[in-house]
């Protein structure tokens, strides 16, 4: 497994303080080297769901004292088989071997090392301007249809592949952060902003003949979200990155990534008022109607509406409206039209609808276990009008809710349909207005066939039209079919077959009318593909 960056490992070198008190029983002894290896694995596979201090979020608390009575054998069994609520079977998926599972079982029975912090000065020092703005093109230099590029995350290579969506040729491979997580597009589509799990932000210019990384910075040590300023008049002025660790977000210059402002997210939990030290930033989305980002502070159950319109005025950089929403906030997206933003609170199995024009909560909707929308899906239902939908990590269904309070107030923010899926473990759903189909994956399923499965429903006949299929060749490569993205025209959709590093990954391409597989993208360079972001669709919030 690729080594973690030095700054995350140094905490073992410098000695650690412990977040939890000493256990009454003796923790299994581990050498510094084993602690280092286990820390890497925890950071890569566990920290996202169980939190950097193991206090839980999407997954339950797994501090040494909550696990002490269960013991090493039990922990190892769960690491091997997973749990139906969304915990992957790392052993059965071939991602952890026996020695690594034994190591992790021992590590989890040790106290939690306290992770390091980052100062604004250190963040500023990490900034690297590769191509000054004056040296960049003023019009696209490529003859390719760059608005139909797909930026494909090559997770474990720490790279983004830029693929021409018309010819399906690889245009270039770009080095980015470690275990890169997502891409976002500026609203003019010209730039991709990339964020790695190691917190590194990369700005990719698509107007050069071959796309290039033009700036980098590292505002976080662990991150999942990045977004630009999208309101007319502010396009490309700013980029924001939210951290899983340390608990803060950073606003950067949109064209150079120079860090401009750091804001701590250490806050108080909604409801109890308990202080939340490890308040992680989950989804961030930019409004196109207001100079605002919607920033979700996971463990606090708070959605912060961050107004960046005064960033250039001395002494008044940001205005933040804090809404108490629900625990623990994860991912979410826009209801078509860009007024209402929906975020999943996956500890409480709720969807929270924010009216971003009013800065209020428009609705809170109870749904089944572990809603995981990605950015969700929008379409017009024949019976209920405009709807927004999510899948679930922890239950075998999709939830569809009414999303048109003006035209169909009787259905707004109410569950209008639930569709059965064959497996739990869904991560993403997607649709496009030019395709009749809604598509769902189930890469986190613990059923042997689940991770290779895709399902589709006709949007005009949801109750009777489900079609599910196993993707040929995926099981042989231990690949999980993950994340769906349409091309600009909505005539085809792409799904990643995400195989381990030593196996052959591929991207399966389907006809968006007939669901027939029409092509595959393969190659030695296609290492662990996960998310795919079509320029036009990402810039214009088409989902
Ligand atoms: Fe993600 C989106 C967090 C695991 C691929 N993921 C997001 C977002 C968050 C998040 C907060 C929303 C970002 C935004 O909108 O600003 N993801 C986490 C985790 O905490 C978690 C559960 C565990 C972890 O350790 O990271 C996790 N995510 C995964 C994966 O295992 C995936 C499949 C592959 C990977 O990178 O490890 C994965 N996450 C994605 C993708 C998106 C995403 C492709 C964007 C979806 C979209 O269409 O917008």
Outline the secondary-structure elements.
Elements (H helix, E strand, L loop, with lengths): L5 H8 L18 H19 L13 H4 L3 H11 L16 H11 L11 H6 L2 E2 L19 E6 L4 E6 L5 E6 L4 E6 L5 E6 L4 E5 L6 E6 L4 E7 L9 E8 L2 E6 L5 E6 L2 E2 L6 E2 L4 E6 L5 E6 L4 E6 L11 E6 L4 E6 L5 E6 L4 E6 L4 E7 L4 E11 L3 E8 L4 E6 L12 E6 L8 E2 L6 E5 L11 E6 L8 E4 L9 E7 L5 E7 L7 E6 L5 E5 L7 E6 H5 L4
Antiparallel strand pairs: 1-8, 2-3, 2-35, 3-4, 5-6, 6-7, 7-8, 9-10, 10-11, 11-12, 13-14, 15-16, 16-17, 17-18, 19-20, 20-21, 21-22, 23-24, 24-25, 25-26, 27-28, 28-29, 29-30, 31-32, 32-33, 33-34
The structure holds heme D (DHE).
Provide a brief overview of the structure.
The protein is mainly beta and 543 residues long.
Please characterize this protein's 3D structure.
- By secondary structure, this protein is mostly beta strands.
- It has a five-stranded antiparallel sheet with strand order 1-8-7-6-5. A four-stranded antiparallel sheet has the order 4-3-2-35.
- The protein starts with 5 loop residues before the first helix and ends with a helix.
- The chain binds heme D.
């Amino acid at each position: 497994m690729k080594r973690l960056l030095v700054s995350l490992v140094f905490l073992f070198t410098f000695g650690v303080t412990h977040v939890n008190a000493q256990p009454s029983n003796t923790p299994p002894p581990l050498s510094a080297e084993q602690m280092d290896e286990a820390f890497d694995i925890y950071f890569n596979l566990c920290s996202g769901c169980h939190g950097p201090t193991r206090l839980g979020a999407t997954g339950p608390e797994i501090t040494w004292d909550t696990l002490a009575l269960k013991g090493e054998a039990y922990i190892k069994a769960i690491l091997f088989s997973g749990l139906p609520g969304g915990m992957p079977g790392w052993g059965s998926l071939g991602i952890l071997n026996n020695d690594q599972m034994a190591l992790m079982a021992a590590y989890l029975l040790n106290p939690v090392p306290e992770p390091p912090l980052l100062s604004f000065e250190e963040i500023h020092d990490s900034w690297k301007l590769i191509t000054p703005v004056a040296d960049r093109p003023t019009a696209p230099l490529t003859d390719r249809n760059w608005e139909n590029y797909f930026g494909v995350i090559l997770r474990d290579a720490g790279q983004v592949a830029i693929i021409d969506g018309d010819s399906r040729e690889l245009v270039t491979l770009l080095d980015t952060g470690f275990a890169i997580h997502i891409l976002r597009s500026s609203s003019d589509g010209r730039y991709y902003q990339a964020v790695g799990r190691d917190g590194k932000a990369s700005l990719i210019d698509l107007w050069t003949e071959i796309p290039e990384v033009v700036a980098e910075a590292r505002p976080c040590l662990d991150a999942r979200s990045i977004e630009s300023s999208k309101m007319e008049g502010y396009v490309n002025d700013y980029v924001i990155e939210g951290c899983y660790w340390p608990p803060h977000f950073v606003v950067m210059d949109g064209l150079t990534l120079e860090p401009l402002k750091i804001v701590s997210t250490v806050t108080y939990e909604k409801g109890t008022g308990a202080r939340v030290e490890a308040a992680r930033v989950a989804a961030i989305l930019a409004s196109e109607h207001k100079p605002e980002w919607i920033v979700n502070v996971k463990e606090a159950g708070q959605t912060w509406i961050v107004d960046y319109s005064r960033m250039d005025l001395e002494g008044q950089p940001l205005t933040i409206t804090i809404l108490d929403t629900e625990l623990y906030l994860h991912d979410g997206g826009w209801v078509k039209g860009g007024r209402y933003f929906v975020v999943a609170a996956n500890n409480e199995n709720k969807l929270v609808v924010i009216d971003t024009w009013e800065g209020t909560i428009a609705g809170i909707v109870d749904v089944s276990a572990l809603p995981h929308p990605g950015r969700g899906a929008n379409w017009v239902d024949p019976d209920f009008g405009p709807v927004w939908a999510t899948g679930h990590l922890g239950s075998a269904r999709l939830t569809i809710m009414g999303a048109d309070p003006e035209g169909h107030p009787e259905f707004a923010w109410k569950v209008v349909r639930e569709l059965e899926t064959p497996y739990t473990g869904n991560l993403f759903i997607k649709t496009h207005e030019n395709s009749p189909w809604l598509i769902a994956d189930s890469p986190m399923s613990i059923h042997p066939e689940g991770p290779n499965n895709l399902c589709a429903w006709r949007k005009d006949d949801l109750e009777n039209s489900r079609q599910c299929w196993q993707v040929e060749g995926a099981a042989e490569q231990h690949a999980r079919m993950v994340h769906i993205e349409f091309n600009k025209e909505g005539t085809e959709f792409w799904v990643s077959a995400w195989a381990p590093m030593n196996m052959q990954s591929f991207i399966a391409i389907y006809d968006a009318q007939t669901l027939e597989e029409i092509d595959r993208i393969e190659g030695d360079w296609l290492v662990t593909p996960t998310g795919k972001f079509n320029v036009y669709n990402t810039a214009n919030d088409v989902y």
